[in-house]
TrEMBL record:
It catalyses: L-leucine + 2-oxoglutarate = 4-methyl-2-oxopentanoate + L-glutamate; L-isoleucine + 2-oxoglutarate = (S)-3-methyl-2-oxopentanoate + L-glutamate; L-valine + 2-oxoglutarate = 3-methyl-2-oxobutanoate + L-glutamate. It comes from Nonomuraea rhodomycinica. This is Branched-chain-amino-acid aminotransferase. One of its GO terms (molecular function) is branched-chain-amino-acid transaminase activity. One of its GO terms (biological process) is L-leucine biosynthetic process. The gene is ilvE. Belongs to the class-IV pyridoxal-phosphate-dependent aminotransferase family. Its EC number is 2.6.1.42.
Length: 305
């Protein structure tokens, strides 16, 4: 990972020089918002998938937690492309981070500077056929924590659930909300397939409204299998024909077992959606090329120093 440059507040700096103060507010209180975005290799060179939507959600998350991003969205869009190009990636993961920096350290600190950074690195594909367990940790209560914001502090919930799963010999955890409804996994949305019908938990269950989740819904509709957002119970997972996860980092990944109960992995619906997703992100399906923002034309336009 430690190669190339990171964009910090308008400047590309060497990876090892992208530093923050130990008394930064976000380090102590979790006052940050983030986005995970991907650039994919296409026939026309690297392109960022659904960049505009990811940045719009970043700004929306910042508003929810009471921070103002000190750049226009178009500036961060250009900076993202600049960073990918500067690091010479054909494909990569992109981490946008907006956090409250060094200054006052009290809980109510409002005048601290807002720091913005963009880092990129190559990302290995996850293993296919994941083994899931239901976590003993419950998803954050949206009445106590704004689950609609992709914020750093609430991610401790996912960290604990993921650690519990891995230490128990599983690949990933399913999080239930306080009412016992299925919410999502630690960093991915979850889909259930039964008798050809596809469903996914509603945001009201505490699940983040995922951009890849939305992508899968649109792909499924175009394949003639619309998705229903509904309440999903633990028993629905056990009785499913197929279960799969989706997220920016993961893509579309089949699940082969939940709490020791085996599933088809991949089943026909998961296989069809995974194939459609791959065609879309790599620019091979012209219907979805509007989701791709090419990197090279922007670099050639003089964004790079």
């Amino acid at each position: 990972m430690e190669t190339g440059r990171i964009w910090m507040d308008g400047t590309l700096v060497p990876w090892g020089e992208a530093r923050v103060h130990v008394l930064s507010h976000a380090l102590h209180y979790g006052t940050g918002v983030l986005e995970g975005t991907r650039a994919f290799d296409t026939g026309a060179g690297p392109a960022v998938f659904r960049l505009r939507e990811h940045l719009e959600r970043l700004y929306r998350s910042a508003r929810i937690v009471g921070m103002r991003v000190p750049y226009e969205l178009e500036e961060l869009e250009a900076a993202t492309l600049e960073t990918v190009a500067a690091n010479g990636h054909r494909a990569c993961y992109i981490r946008h981070l907006v956090h409250r920096g060094y200054g006052e350290l009290g809980l109510a600190a409002r005048a601290n500077p807002i720091v913005v950074s963009i880092a990129t690195w190559e990302w290995a594909a996850p293993a296919a056929g994941l083994r899931l367990m239901t976590s003993s940790w419950r998803r954050n209560d949206q009445a106590a924590v704004p689950t609609a914001a992709k914020a750093t502090g609430p991610y401790l919930n996912s960290v604990l659930a993921k650690a519990e799963a891995v230490e128990g010999g599983y690949d990933e955890a399913v999080l239930l909300n306080a009412a016992g409804q299925v919410s999502e996994c630690t960093a991915a949305n979850l889909f259930v397939v039964r008798e050809g019908r596809v469903s996914t938990p509603q945001a009201s269950a505490g699940a983040l409204e995922g951009i890849t989740q939305d992508t899968v819904e649109q792909l499924a509709a175009d394949l003639g299998m619309p998705v229903t957002r509904r309440d999903v119970m633990r028993s629905d997972l056990y009785g499913a024909d197929e279960v799969f996860l989706c997220g920016t980092a993961a893509g579309v990944v089949p699940v082969r077992s939940i709490d020791g109960r085996d599933l088809a992995a991949p089943g026909p619906v998961t296989s069809a959606l995974a194939a459609a997703y791959a065609e879309a992100v790599h620019g091979r399906d012209s219907r979805y090329r509007h989701w791709l923002t090419p990197v090279r034309p922007h670099a050639a336009a003089g964004l790079l120093p």
